[in-house]
Design a protein that fits this description.
Layout lengths: L2 H15 L6 E5 L2 E6 L8 E6 L10 E3 L10 H18 L5 H10 L1 H4 L8 H12 L4 H7 L7 H10 L15 H8 L6
Antiparallel strand pairs: 1-2, 2-3, 3-4
Helix pairs in contact: 2-3
Length: 188
């Protein structure tokens, strides 16, 4: 059988096996993604397998560069890819996409044992601050806080409670004083 015939047969098999499986996604007839682990699982990861023209005689391209994997350190990704590559070498010449997805599912805990979620927000903010050094100085001038004198700070502290909040009703109008000045029409 030619590589194309093998690929067509494997494609049909994958479609029938993973029909209705939310973890499986066919990106194209030669590229597939599979989420290992449940949706909210912090140790879940996504594997993408793309077939070359001569697959399965040559190894497929295995990737973990999906945005879903952005909390996984590159060392853990490399470790997973190395273990999957070993499985590829064993199965070279046969349809192996299903085998690789199942191998990853069966060994998920072992693959992710050294996983400590990377805080992606800090890396993104670092990238942003590195990329936008020209904007930062103009923002600093706007963010400058008003400086209070000691007397102003004391006055503010006297008005507020120990939490720094103004007491309830601090801005209410003294109703009695107001009514006594205006006079009530009922008194006349």
């Amino acid at each position: 059988m030619s590589a194309n015939e093998d690929q067509e047969m494997e494609l049909e098999a994958l479609r029938s096996i993973y029909e209705g499986d939310e973890s499986f996604r066919e990106l194209s007839p030669v590229s597939f993604q599979y989420r290992i682990g449940e949706n909210g699982d912090p140790k879940a990861f996504l594997i993408e397998i793309s077939w070359t023209e001569t697959y399965p005689q040559t190894p497929p391209i295995i990737s973990m560069n999906a945005f879903f994997n952005n909390t996984i350190s590159s060392a853990v990704k490399q470790s997973i890819l190395a273990k999957l590559q070993e499985a590829v070498e064993v199965n070279l010449g046969t349809a192996m996409t299903y085998t690789l997805f199942e191998y990853a599912k069966d060994n998920k805990e072992q693959f992710m044992e050294n996983h400590h979620p990377v805080n992606s927000t800090t890396s993104i903010s670092n990238i942003i601050s590195v990329e936008t050094p020209n904007i930062a100085p103009s923002n600093k001038k706007k963010d400058k806080k008003e400086q209070l004198s000691k007397a102003q700070k004391r006055k503010l502290a006297d008005k507020t409670d120990h939490k720094g909040e103004l007491p309830r009703g601090w801005n209410w109008v003294d109703v009695v004083k107001h009514l006594s000045k205006t006079g009530s029409k009922d008194d006349e």
